[in-house]
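Entry:
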Amino acid sequence: MTDAIAALNAKLDRLVAAMERMAPPEPQAPDFAAAECFVWDANLGALAPVPVVNRVEIALIRGVDRVRDILLDNTRRFAEGLPANNVLLWGARGMGKSSLVKASHATVATETGTPLKLIEIHREDIDALPRLMHILKSADARFIVFCDDLSFDQDDTSYKSLKAALDGGVEGRPDNVIFYATSNRRHLLPRDMIENERSTAINPSEAVEEKVSLSDRFGLWLGFHKCSQDDYLAMVEGYVRHFGLEIEPEELRRDSLEWATTRGSRSGRVAWQYVNDLAGRLGQRLEAGS
């Protein structure tokens, strides 16, 4: 009997050892000194540092001066420990919403010299936002949690996690965390989803209110609208001047307007795509001019 028990215990020990090898390693405490920006990996429950951030200088973002100044002021106050709001940047595609968030973070971090970090969370990981908040709240730094292209579709209930994490939970949002999001939708939900709630619910007004109340968690709504021809040309000229591309002004105007016409739109993204094409045709690299 004793030998049988010993054999059974040995098998159990091997089973436990095998299970431990299969289990994912415990995530290490993040080293926030490693980078200025991080990406949240919900599967590992860890923050991955981003050594080189894909962003442009804030001076190159044209045609959105008013919302740029508002976002900079809100970010600056947050970095200095003053009251600030969660921000929803919504509106036209390609007008620099995400670029402005990244540029504002870099500008304010440099100006204030505070340990201000940018944390990107992917749309599909919103359910893990409360876990991320728990990690950040005890850190000796201030964090902008950023979600690009945030929106929710029919039967998607993860927006409830976001509502709770922003300011509706028992603990509330940590004082050292603020949330910035970009979206093409002001209420983050498709119109047909809202209309469906209105037509099928027992109390239509309450159902719609529950859905659209998510956007109310953002104290600032910054709207981005399609740019004028003058704004578009200013964007193109700003890029050309910054990168030192050599082209006659009249040719630049004519060429860039033709590019926008073929794309069927004018925006900061279209201006950047044109400048990439122009630099390639000129055989010049996109390196900042003198």
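The longest strand covers residues 177-183.
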